Amino acid sequence: MWKKAVNRERRSAELAYRLQASPPPAEAEGPQQADVERRTARFEEMLRVPREERDRVQRTQVIDRAAAALAAARAVLKEPPQSSPTPQPQKVAAATRVTGSGDVFGSRKAAKGPEDQGSGQGSVPAASQSAKVTNSGDSYPSKLGTPGPDFWSWLPPVDTSSEPRENNIVLKPSKKVDSFSSQPEMLMEKERSADFLSLPFVTSFFEKKEDRSLPPFQSFAEPENVDSGAMPVVDAEEAFETQFSNNAAEAARALSTSDDKSSHGIDPDGSKWWKETGVEQRPDGVVCKWTVIRGVSPDGSVEFEDKYWEASDRFDHKELGSEKSGRDARGNVWREYWKESMWQDFTSGLMHMEKSADKWGKNGKGEQWQEKWWEQYDSSGKAEKSADKWCSLDPNTTLDVGHAHVWHERWGETYDGSGGSVKYTDKWAERSEGDGWSKWGDKWDEHFDRNGHGVKQGETWWEGKYGDRWNRTWGEGHNGSGWVHKYGRSSSGEHWDTHEQQKTWYQRYPHFGFHHCFENSVKLLSVPRQPPKNIKPGKRVDAP
Q1: Confidence tier at 29 by pLDDT (50, 70, 90)
Q2: What is the C-alpha to C-alpha distance for residues 345 and 382, in angstroms, rounded to an integer?
C-alpha cells in the first residue's frame, strides 16, 4: 500500500517535471528522496506490529465508528419535528391522548425534555385547545407493563392562579427518569393489625366513592402458630374473586366515561384532577384502549393516579385491568395493580383465563410490604394458583415476643384436570435481636396423581442468632392400599417410622375452577372484539 503511494508520487513528479518550462534544481532531489526513504522505513516498522495487535486496533476502530453512527441516529430520532402534523384520532396504530391545554396551571418549564419542546402548544390560543388530541409520544410510556403514560415520571402542573379556567389547564410529563429510581422510599401511613397491614388508597375521582383498598389476599397467623396440615385459602379466594368483580366494574365504568369532554376539574373536596385517554396497537394485533386520571390533593401534599384499560383483538383475546399509584410529601409510595384476561389457544382449541393482582408500598424507614396473587385456568379443567406475601420492618422496631421484623409466605396449587394435584406452603420469618437474627419457618407440600397415589411431607425449623439450629421433618406415603406410611425425624433425636390404617384424602379438583371464573368475569366478557378489516371501525363486534 505504501509502495503504491510512493510510485504514484514519483509518476506525478515526473509528469510535473515534463510540463514545466524550466526543470527543478537538481539539489532538491536529495532531500525528497531521503524523506521518501524515511517514510518507507516507518511504514515497514508499522508492519512489524503483531497481527493480534493490529486486529485489536481495527476492531476497536470498527466499534467506535458503529457507536458514533448509532449516536447520530439517536440524535436525529430525538429531534422534535419541524412542524406538528395533523393528528389522526381514527388511526389505531398511533396512540393518542386527550388533554386540556393552556397555561393557568402551566407545566413546569424546567422539567421539559427534548420531546416536550417541539409540541408548539404554547403558541396556539387556549380557546382552540380545550379538547386537543395530540400524539401520546409526548408522554413517557409506563415501564411496569401497563399501557399509557408513566406515573413516576410525571409532575403535576404548577398552580399559577387561584381560580382555574376550563381552557387554561395543561398536563405535561416530567423529565424522563427511571420508574422507581426517583420515587421516595416511603409509603402511606397505615394501621397495623395482627394479621394484615392495610393500605389506605387516597385516590377518589368518581361520585360513587368506593373503598379502594384491597382486602388481604390470604388470612395468616404467625409462622410459629400455623398448623401445617391446613391451608385456609377458601375464604381468601372468595374475597379475592369478590374484589376482582368490584375492580372490573370500576374499570368498566371509568372506560365508559372516558369519552367525556371534560379533561380536568376540581372535586368538591378541592382535589384537582387531569384526564388522558388513548388507544394503542400492540405488535400482536391487540388494540388497547386506556384512560388515566391523575390528581393532587387540595394542599398539594399527595399526588396519585388511576389508570384503567381494556384490550382485545379480532378473535378471542380480551383484557381488563387497572393500576393505582401514589406518593405524598412525606415520601410514602404505593402501587396497586390487577388484571384479568382470556384467550384461545388455536393449536389445542382450549380457552384460557388468567387473573393477577399486586400491591406494594414502602416508607422512609425502609419498611415495605407486598402481596401478589396469580391464577390461570383452561377449559380442560387444568388450574394453577399461587400467592406470595412479604413484609419487612425497621430492625430497630420493638416487637412482642414471637413477632418478626421480616416475614414471608408463599403457597401454590396445581391441578392437571384429571384428578392429580400438587400443593405447597412455605412460611418463614426473621427477627432482629440486636447482635444477630433469629429465624424460624414451616413448610409442607403434597403430590398426588389421578389414582390417589402420592406423598405428603413437611419441615418445621428454627435457627438462633448464634447459629444454633433445630428442625423436624415428617412425611406420609399413600399408595391406595388403605395403609399410610408415616415417618419423620428431628435434630433433637426424635425418630418414627410406622404404618397406620387410614384413608387418603387430597383435593383432586379446584373448588373454584374454569367455569366459575368464566361466570364471574361478566365485565371481561363484555369487552368488545375488534372489527375485521373489512368492517368499518365504528361498528362494534361483540362476542356472542
Answers
A1: low
A2: 14
Q: Residue 123 gets which letter from DSSP?
A: G
DSSP H helix total and E strand total for the chain: 6, 18
Residue spans of alpha helices (H) in 437-540: 514-520, 522-525
Cβ distance 441 to 427 under 8 Å? yes
Look at the block and give the residue holding cell 384461545: 344
CB 407 within 8 A of CB 430: yes
Distance from chain centroid for Cα 103: 33
Answer whether 305's CB lies under 8 Å from 326's CB.
yes
Closest to 502 in 3D by CA, of 525, 480, 470, 469: 480
**Would you say 114 and 78 are in contact if contact means Cβ atoms under 8 Å apart?**
yes
338 part of a folded domain: no
Answer whether 187's CB lies under 8 Å from 336's CB: no
Report whether pLDDT(113) > 90.
no
With the C-alpha atoms ordered 45, 47, 48, 51, is the resulting torsion angle positive or negative?
A: positive
Domain assignment of residue 20, given as a range: 1-49
pLDDT in tens, 374-433: 999 999 999 999 999 999 999 988 888 889 999 999 999 999 999 999 999 999 999 999
Count: domains in the chain: 1
DSSP code of residue 158: P
pLDDT (mean) for 315-341: 91
Whole-number Cα distances in Å, 471 to 103, 220, 442, 443, 462: 67, 22, 10, 11, 6
In a domain, 428, yes or no: no
Measure Cα distances from 424 to 409, 442, 471, 487 in Å. 11, 11, 18, 19
**Cell, residue 202:** 387516597
The CA distance from 272 to 236, in Å, is 36
pLDDT, one tens digit per residue, over 188-239 is: 434 444 443 333 333 333 333 333 333 333 333 333 333 444 445 556 666 6
Task: Report d(CA 256, CA 322) in Å as an integer.
Answer: 14
Q: Is 22 contained in some domain? A: yes
Measuring CA to CA, which residue among 46, 41, 28, 36 is closest to residue 5?
36
Give bridge partners of residue 498 from the DSSP assignment: 486
Burial bucket for residue 169 (CB in 10 Å: 0-12, 13-18, 19+): buried
Whole-angstrom distance, CA of residue 93 vs CA of residue 72: 27
Closest to 138 in 3D by CA, of 171, 183, 167, 177: 171
Q: Given its phi and psi angles, is residue 300 left (phi above 0), alpha (psi -120 to 50 degrees) or beta?
A: left
29 in a domain, yes or no? yes
